[in-house]
Amino acid sequence: MSRYYKVMLGERSKYADECFTGSFIGVWYDIEEDLNKSLSDTKEAFEMIYIPLLEEKNRGKSSCNKLWKFYREIEIGDIVLCPDGDPYDSFYIGEITSDYYFKLVNYKNGEKQPHRRKVKWFEYKIKKEELSDELKTTIKQPVTIIDLTHNFSNEIKLLLEKKNEKKINTPKDNGINFQKYVELIRRYIDQSVIGLLLSQFLENTLQSISNDWWQELVVKKLSDIQLKTVKRKKINTLDRLDNAALLNILIQNLNEISNIEYLLEEDKNTIYLMKNIRNRIEGHFTNKAYDNLFDILRDFDSILRFLKLINIEQEDIQKIIDEIKNIILEIMRYILQDEQKNS
User: Fold this and answer.
1) What gap in Å lies between CA 14 and CA 30, rounded to an integer?
2) Domain co-membership, 226 together with 138
3) Which of 49, 153, 219, 224 has the least C-beta neighbours within 10 A?
4) Are residues 216 and 74 located together in one domain of the fold?
5) Within this chain, do residues 22 and 90 fall inside the same structural domain, yes or no?
6) Residues 318, 221: one domain?
7) Helix (H, G, I), strand (E, B) or coil at 241
8) Percent of the chain surpassing pLDDT 90
9) CA torsion, points 277, 281, 282, 284, in degrees to nearest 10?
10) Is 203 a residue whose pLDDT tops 90?
């Protein structure tokens, strides 16, 4: 499920318009190096590197916590609310569409947002008058990043659903039922299908990489939130993890797995696309997940490629593969009919 964050885009939101135009969010915290170079898989290791650096610049553990949150805890599919100026009269709303990346900027020219995430901004803003008093009070705190999920997820979800009242309707000109395809995609990426197969694939593969695979290749690769869930529920097998955690483990160990499974670049791209599909379908905005057949066709094709990639030879899975192939052919017929109609 998507999480919700308030992210301040510079002091007094002075970088808000630049971020909106460039489709990203960014922070600085006086750290001018690529965080990926730290190779920090845990928050503790990250703190050992960056707390001393931050203290030299009159910052401390709090700033390190926020930097870690931006680097590792915020995930693709999460929703950000970003004040568009000072005072907080309205907010840009967007969905995170990439993992952390580093952008070399010109600090002498006043550019100070090297740590970035790509964002797909929504077509509307939210005004402060639409927020509850409690949410307005929280969001006005002079903090760059605030996790709003625990106390305000229901309020924000309802507010965004009102903004998105226009659901996917069947196009009158060609009779295509978009919602049917959304539900089919949801079915195929369900925990009982993709989740079960992926857990089997990972268990077989990770065991061949390390004898201590559970600790080294699973536990240490989880996000802080996922790790807390594992400890709270006392999870000790992959089949009890959700799809988000399983895909995270797959991506975090992708280099090692590639050496064993001989994955090509297109295979790796398929894996990243699966993560995007999962976030789009299992998020809060499935009624806005698709607005054209080409995107639906792309995602069915990605699911098909992913099932072949993890290569679980089961009769039931072959049936699913055949079903998806038939759906792809059906969608292609719709697209061809539409092109002929418009030609």
Assistant:
1) 17
2) no
3) 224
4) no
5) yes
6) yes
7) coil
8) 31
9) 130
10) yes
pLDDT of residue 58: 85
Rounded Cα gap, residues 226 and 230, in angstroms? 6
Q: Which range of residues forms the domain containing residue 19?
A: 4-163
DSSP 8-state secondary structure symbol assigned to residue 5: E
Residue 277 falls inside a structural domain: yes
- Domain boundary, last residue among 112, 131, 163: 163
**Is 137:152 a contact under the CB 8 Å cutoff?**
no
Lowest-pLDDT choice from 18-22, 182-186, 190-194, 269-273:
190-194
d(CA 66, CA 224): 13
Q: 9 CB contacts (<8 Å, ≥6 apart)?
A: 15, 16, 18, 19, 25, 26, 82, 83, 113
Amino acid identity for residue 210 in this structure: S
Provide the b/e sequence for 177-195 (b: ≥16 CB within 10 Å).
Answer: ebbebbebbeebbeeebbb
- Tell me the Cα Rg of the chain: 22
Helix (H, G, I), strand (E, B) or coil at 317: helix
